[in-house]
Amino acid sequence: MMKLNRLLMMLAMSILTLSVSAQGVSDKMKEAQMRGFGAQNTQANTKSDSTAKTEGQAKTDTDPEFPGGEVFLQAYLKKKLTHAGVSGKGEVVVSFKVDKKGNIYGAEVTKSAGNALDTAAFNIVTGMPRWRPGLTKGEPADKPASVTINFGQ
Fold first, then answer.
1. 121 CB neighbour count, 10 Å cutoff
2. CA pair distance 145, 46, nearest whole angstrom
3. CB–CB of 44/76 below 8 Å?
């Protein structure tokens, strides 16, 4: 009977520990989504050509952002790169604008790594889901952005 009680207690503690750990991971994912996670330098970098001029303006002027932020952009690019079916090494930068509704338009390769890689990078960027539009004075506005894609690295 004593062994059964110990076994049940250990089982209950294990389940409780797993539950708390899972909740912690879930909370961290939610926090990452809400923050949009700042610039992490892994597969790709994003940058915008506009910067806030003052502290007050920083709150109402924002850059376009991939849905879910940088972490989700990295995951999207990683997935697309594995399915791109191109070989070679190089870095391609694709610049574009994000309109008030989050649509990408005017995409162009601004740093080339060769025709096949450029085409693959262009297709990956133009196939992205809608972005969160940038804001100017608190209102959605067309804003420039760019994505750097590293192939074979």
1. 31
2. 7
3. no
Residues 60 and 23: their CA atoms lie apart, in Å, by: 33
d(CA 49, CA 41): 18
Using an 8 Å Cβ cutoff, are 116 and 17 in contact? Answer: no
Q: What is the pLDDT of residues 13-62, one digit of tens each?
A: 555 444 444 444 445 454 444 444 433 333 444 454 444 455 555 568 99
Q: Specify the pTM.
A: 0.62
CA dihedral 142, 103, 72, 23 (to 10 degrees): 90
* Backbone φ, ψ for residue 143 (5° rounding): -140, 150
Positive/negative CA dihedral, 6, 7, 12, 13:
positive
